[in-house]
Amino acid sequence: MDPPALEHPLILPNGAAAAAAEKKTMAAAADYCPSDHDNDVDSELASTRTASPTSTDFSSTSSDHAHSPNNTSCPPSPTTTTTTTSSSLKPSYPLPPPSTPLTTILPTDLKTPDHLIPRDPRLIRLTGSHPFNVEPPLSTLFDHGFLTPQNLHYVRNHGAVPSSVATTAPTTVSDEEEQEDDPLLDWEFTVEGLVEHPLKISVRELMDASKWDNVTYPVTLVCAGNRRKEQNLIRKSKGFSWGAGGLSTALWTGVGLAEILARAKPLTKKGARYVCFEGADQLPNGVYGTSVKLAWAMDPNKGILVAHKMNGEELHPDHGRPVRVVVPGQIGGRSVKWLKRIVVTRGPSENWYHVFDNRVLPTTVGPEESGEKTREMEGVWRDERYAIYDLNVNSVICEPGHGEVVSLRGEERGETYKLRGYAYAGGGRRVTRLEVTLDQGTSWRLAGIDYPEDRYREAQDGEELFGGRLDVSWRESCFCWCFWDLEIPLSELREAKDVCIRAMDESLALQPKEMYWSVLGMMNNPWFRVVIHHEGDTLRFEHPTQPMLTSDGWMDRVKKEGGNLANGFWGEKVPGAEENVVQEEPVKEISMVDEKVTRLITLEELREHDGEEEPWFVVNGQVYDGAPFLEGHPGSAASITGAAGQDVTDEFLAIHSENAKAMMPSYHIGTLTPSALAALRSSSTSDPALSDPNRPIFLQPKTWSSATLTSKESVSPDTKIFHFTLCHPAQSVGLPVGQHLMMRLPDPSKPTESIIRAYTPISDGTSERGTLRVLVKIYYASPSEDKKGGQMTQALDGLALGKAVEFKGPVGKFVYQGRGICSVNGREKKVKRFVMICGGSGVTPIYQVLRAVAVDGQDGTECLVLDGNRVEGDILMKRELDELVNAARPEGRCRVKYTLSRPGEGWKGLRGRLDKTVLEREVGGPDLRGETMVLLCGPEGMQTMVQEVLKGLGWKDEDVLVF
User: Fold this and answer.
1) Which residue of the set 14, 151, 223, 863 is catalytic?
2) With contact defined as beta carbons under 8 Å apart, do 651 and 742 qualify?
3) Catalytic annotation on 36?
4) What's the CA dihedral at 227, 232, 233, 234 to 10 degrees?
5) Is 357 part of the annotated catalytic residue set?
6) Which of these is catalytic: 226, 311, 358, 825?
7) Which of 57, 281, 357, 450 is catalytic?
8) Which H or E run includes 845?
9) Which of 112, 448, 462, 631 is 20 to 30 A from 62 (CA-CA)?
10) What is each CA distance from 471 to 135, 255, 316, in whole angstroms?
């Protein structure tokens, strides 16, 4: 039976209307009427939404609520005025705009672990398809007003949503019968550690008003990376590029953490000082966890909440369903989702994500230093002085929007333009002023500020909303963003070159003009500057950046034009100041052609030489005969035969040295005709069967094959395992043991060019199916800027998940066929013992060979691995190597010895570099029978030194192979 409608309707934001109901006894549905500010997705689906019922008591009375004169800056989410059956008025406050019902799985999520979670397509993805890190478009966020719909709330996920959450669809508040059957109501979290009474609480119990005091109040959550894109354009940090939309506000319903801890009774006399939170998400470095101080958690005025509802609805899986922590006034990273444990401890959390994330390290620490595994760097990371808790004061211009054009035709009539935007502070502090300058700080003017949060403070005592008591009136803390505005005459905007703003909070903390760069790119809060372009009788406005990798904004433009964004004047040339222009040394051109060769070669002739006997290939339109170099090529004959009949300009120029280029005139045999070159570049010369996505083997020697980057697994601060999904689950990589593949990426700085490098995957190239795993050490630019860092590794590190990467192969002159049989440049060789020497990421081909030997019980080959590094933290794949050694039979057949040039006090392995002393003791002279082979891979300096030492010990070149 439909509930009776009240005589006076409840006016919801954006023009929505709903019938109100008597407290806890009646509920009503609302028909939604979209306003001019709603987009198609909202308007199409909102009519299917049932309004979330409230328990608001409409029997009380109060005087009319009067807005302050400047309360006009809040975007068009109209203030909600509630009325009673007796027509008496009560305090007004915003209610959430209707969420868009999400039922469709987006195509980009179908191939990710989150393939069961429906999401809003308007959200801007910052890390590709997975993990899900998104912000709403700034204009959309602002237009929705004080409260953000759940489906448009920003999301920060470090990995996949827990599967138990993703596979159980949430219900709306009105679906009471379905809600009772929801298995996630039995989800439990514990309260443990230094407490007198450990607790285990289910969501069902948490929602029980007879057991816990449920409360509701608004909180703005802000990602610590909000506005990070601006920092990344000054100097690349380790974080991805958030725009200015990494924040959202919602009404949260749950139980105060102070009440929960009061029942558990923390043992403060035994040293209890911190409260740690842990979620259920399984990540590369364990579950996500963090901590706050116990004194904060026990303080009701801090408002820390264990929440189970958001805007009157069950939590969406991306927002922590079924229960999460909400920490007002602090960075979003402290508000743990999918809560499983609350642990009271003596010290701050030891969780990896608490120690190595959400910190503002000193600006002197760059990406390279931050990744060092030294005692000093470990101490820096663990220094709680650098941990971020409270948000800093920040503000953003939302109107005019990026790219907005304003006509000046009304200038003569004295027309104005209203600047509008948002501001927030942290720690419960109120933003007390917002200042605007049109002359880059010479003079300032005050903007009006609207605080929608204050309207909740006028709610009647005991009033309930969404099943929780409105717990706001007594608080002095400010948990939410506010809105500012200022009318500016068009005549003044005509004379200005930009608009800058800054905010101040009640502690007198003020936004600085200059940013404070830090390695994680967090807490960015310099003045927000919008550039004004004068175009005839119009003005066009340009924001500093746009989220993601799009090059759109004045900071991108200035950087491309060669401006120094860190010069204190936003990259502009300062009159009278000397410009420090670095004169680049001209690049010496190396001729790769024989000027005496004038032969023109047709496409038919080229294709007659696309086999292994007389392989011809093309570089820059010139044809070369690879046959004379088949035996001597460092990459084996396969490198040349794989290029036969192909235009390999990109591959050749990307990976060959100047010496190799200088050798090319000796192999130059002619020039491809223009028509042949055009036909070669526009058509595929490979067998169509090889490009079939259903083929069993992924790698092809003559064609590039695409795989999708699906995840990045950090194994050290500067090393990651990149996971790629192949064409289908049954497809094998097709990479023999000991060989490598070529990886190709577009150059971020030169989109028309490619970066190509060779890598040896750590996945089994013959037995694993559907996936490809590549371990890569990332060479970041150094703080001094003298080192630009690794072009390929930084591009790969910055590549968004879901993007395609191209591969070709196999390549290499060495193949281990098993049981002591290997092939070198096509010639079979029998070995009884491998001595494998490596360093850093050079461990990957060594690992491939060791794995093939160790897991085969019929392989009697002996292996000695010498792994040299600087410090213990630099040792890669140590656990995997040790497991292989332990698995090899008979015991002792395979051994691994680690040596460090800078060992710590507790190091029990070898000490020193892989120099003559170590190699003479551990390797010794050559096997006179030629049955021992040395495999070598590592940094160039290490390889050169080891080769020289081995040569001095009597080893022959044919017994030493360098990958």
Assistant:
1) 223
2) yes
3) no
4) 100
5) yes
6) 358
7) 357
8) helix 843-854
9) 448
10) 28, 11, 23
